[in-house]
Amino acid sequence: PLGMSADICVIGFRGGEYTSVPDLFLPRDYWEKAMELVRKERPDIRFVAVTDDPQTAATFLPAEVQITHEVGEDWRLVRYAKYLIIANSSFYILPALLNQEVRKVIAPRYWARRNTGVWSTNQNYYRQFTYI
Asked: Tens-of-pLDDT digits for all 132 residues of the chain?
C-alpha cells in the first residue's frame, strides 16, 4: 500500500468547519514548516494528503501533493505511513498512535489552540510526536 512506502509522508489536512474557526484551522506556514522538517530527514520524500476537504487542501498545499478523500483508505494510510504530518483532529490520533512503523509524526504545538499559544487539551499531548 502507498502509505507503507518509506518515501511517502502522509499529510492529515483538516478543513471543513475548521476553516471558520481561527483557533483550530492551521495556517499555511504550519504545513510548509512541517514539510520542510520531513524533507531534511528524507530529501526524496513524496507527500500525499488525506482530508475531509480536498478543495481547501488544494489551496494550502503545493500542487505536487496528491490529495485523497476516501475515509477508510485515508485512515489506513495514516495507520501505516512512515512519516506523518497531522492536523489537530481526532481522526488522525488513533491511527498515528497505532502505527508501529512510523519514524516521525509532526503535530501542531498546543493541539487545538496552536494559533493562540495556549495548550488547551493536555490529553492530546503525546511524547512520540514532534510538535511545531
From this structure: 565 788 999 999 999 999 998 888 999 999 999 999 999 999 999 999 999 999 999 999 999 999 999 998 999 999 999 999 999 998 999 999 999 999 999 999 988 777 777 777 777 788 999 999
At residue 105, what are phi and psi to the nearest 5 degrees?
Answer: -120, 120
Tell me which residue has cell 483550530.
24
- Distance separating the N- and C-terminal Cα atoms of the chain: 28
Nearest to 24 by CA among 126, 122, 110: 110
Q: Which residue has the cell 502509505?
A: 3
| Model pTM score | 0.93
- Rounded Cα distance between 11 and 131, Å, is 14
DSSP at 75: H
Q: Which residues pair with 51 in a beta bridge?
A: 13
